């Protein structure tokens, strides 16, 4: 059953523990650092639950309406339908919520297309996954994940020579009822608004570190679980007009910290198997279903970028300059490129695994690489078109409360093409995408959310049909006349 926004907000008040520095936050729906972000997520649930949009966002299963992000697709039409739902969700947040509720749902759905693989690795673990998949989709859960070790702090001996406990999340004890885990895991983006956090590994695990291979789900309010948030950008955005993106779309990133957290066996999907702790995502559609959402989200963000670029040029009165038109045309072409890559993933879908279809793996990974390579360049183009205009805007819209200042601002800051107030809002929006802390986080996020560029390109290397490529060359060489002819 599709959850509503009010139900989503109520779930966030479940006793989860979030820290901003030393400050403990017990209710993210009320705290000024998180409340607007919480409402943005709730609005996505209201959007999906709208009866007028039921066919766009959900499918029927035994009388229940299930969100399309959970659909295990069996036809190309299924994939297209699922894509349209994810695009509508991404459009609602302008592609700025990377870990929206449909992201990790794709990973779980992909795993649920080959549960027998998990059963082969450990009897019953695939059954655990299917039971969780059924519960998650029927309850419209919002899942996050923490699937990489803490960066740069794995060494047991720190620079002072002091030996410490290994901080990486791992199993520290187990019994007949389950496992106990302690340690840290990155990067639980969106987790402070979610229901449960999935722990696993998107990087390979050395055989000597088998305890880190634990793959499971943990309720966000489980005893011993806390989320240590990075600096929230929302709490510094006093007025929405001053920081329109920071104000509403900071999904936040947090480190998952577990202090002897008990995980029952029925919530475990893999254990003590380093070699397969990453491979399960490649041997199932999990990695592809999850990352197609990332491609679609970037497509939505490109729409915002291209629209802003054009509006800025109109505001500056340079929209008809040939060199400017060329730049705008290039941005529009880039937006069409990512749209074509997404469409191609569906048109060239693969009949895999047995009985299901998957977006074309090569095209999904190619799109990931494309986005990673081009985002910085795209934002820099927007920054170049903006010039110094964002820096000419007053510090805050609160000057409008002073009639004399407001009058002068409206007379002096306006242009023939756009009044001063509209220019103020436009350039504050632009700044929040190219120059604020929120913008800086997105630069880093788009560069690394799918992993280091080496990892992203290795995926394309793995999926490339090298035999076919070699055959093209060998066929051409074979058609050449002998050297002694």
Please give a structural write-up.
With 485 residues, this protein is of the alpha+beta class. The chain folds into two domains: 278 residues, Butyryl-CoA Dehydrogenase, subunit A, domain 2 (Beta Barrel); 186 residues, Up-down Bundle (Butyryl-CoA Dehydrogenase, subunit A, domain 3). The chain has 17 helices and twelve strands. The radius of gyration is 24 Å and the shape is globular.
By secondary-structure content and strand pairing, the structural class works out as alpha+beta
Count structural domains.
2
Can you give the helix content as a percent range? Answer: 40-55%
CATH domain fold name of the largest domain: Butyryl-CoA Dehydrogenase, subunit A, domain 2
The CATH architecture classification of the largest domain is: Beta Barrel
Order of helices and strands: HEEHHEEHHHHEEEEEEHEEHHHHHHHHH
């Amino acid at each position: 059953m599709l959850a509503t926004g009010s139900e989503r907000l109520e779930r966030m008040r479940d006793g989860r523990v979030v820290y901003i520095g030393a400050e403990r936050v017990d209710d993210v729906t009320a705290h000024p650092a998180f409340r607007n972000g919480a409402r943005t997520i709730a609005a996505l649930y209201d959007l999906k639950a709208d009866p007028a949009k039921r066919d766009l966002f959900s499918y029927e299963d035994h009388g229940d309406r299930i969100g399309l992000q959970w659909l295990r697709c069996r036809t190309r039409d299924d994939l297209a339908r699922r894509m349209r739902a994810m695009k509508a969700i991404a459009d609602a947040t302008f592609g700025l919520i990377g870990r929206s509720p449909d992201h990790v749902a794709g990973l779980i759905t992909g795993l649920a297309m080959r549960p027998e693989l998990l059963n082969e690795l450990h009897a019953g673990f695939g059954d655990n996954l299917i039971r969780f998949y059924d519960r998650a989709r029927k309850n419209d859960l919002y899942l996050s994940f923490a699937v990489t070790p803490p960066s740069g702090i794995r060494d047991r001996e720190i620079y002072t020579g002091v030996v410490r406990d290994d901080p990486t999340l791992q199993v520290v004890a187990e019994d007949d009822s389950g496992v106990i885990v302690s340690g840290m895991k990155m990067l639980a983006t969106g987790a402070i608004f979610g229901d449960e956090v999935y722990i696993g590994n998107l990087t390979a695990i050395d055989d000597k570190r088998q305890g880190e291979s634990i793959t499971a789900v943990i309720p966000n309010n489980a005893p011993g679980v806390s989320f240590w948030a990075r600096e929230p950008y929302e709490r510094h955005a006093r007025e929405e007009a001053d920081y329109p993106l920071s104000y509403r779309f900071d999904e936040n990133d947090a480190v998952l910290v577990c202090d002897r957290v008990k995980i029952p066996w029925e919530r475990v999907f893999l254990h003590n198997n380093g070699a397969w702790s990453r491979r399960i995502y490649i041997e199932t559609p999990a990695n592809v279903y999850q990352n197609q959402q990332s491609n679609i989200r970037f497509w939505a963000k490109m729409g915002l970028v291209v629209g802003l670029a054009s509006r800025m040029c109109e505001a500056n009165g340079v929209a008809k300059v040939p060199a400017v038109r060329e730049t705008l045309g290039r941005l529009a072409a880039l937006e069409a490129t990512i749209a074509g890559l997404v469409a191609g993933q569906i048109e060239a879908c693969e009949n895999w695994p047995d009985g299901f279809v998957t977006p074309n793996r090569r095209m999904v990974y190619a799109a990931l690489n494309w986005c990673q390579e081009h985002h910085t360049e795209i934002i820099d183009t927007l920054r170049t078109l903006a010039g110094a205009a964002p820096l000419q805007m007053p510090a805050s819209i609160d000057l409008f409360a002073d009639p004399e200042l407001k009058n002068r601002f409206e007379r002096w800051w306006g242009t023939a093409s756009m009044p001063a107030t509209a220019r103020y809002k436009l350039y504050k929006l632009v700044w929040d995408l190219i120059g604020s802390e929120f913008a800086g986080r997105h630069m880093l996020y788009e560069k690394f959310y799918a992993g280091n560029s080496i990892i992203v390109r290795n995926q394309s290397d793995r999926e490339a049909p090298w035999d076919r490529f070699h055959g093209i060359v060998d066929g051409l060489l074979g058609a050449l006349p002998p050297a002694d002819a």
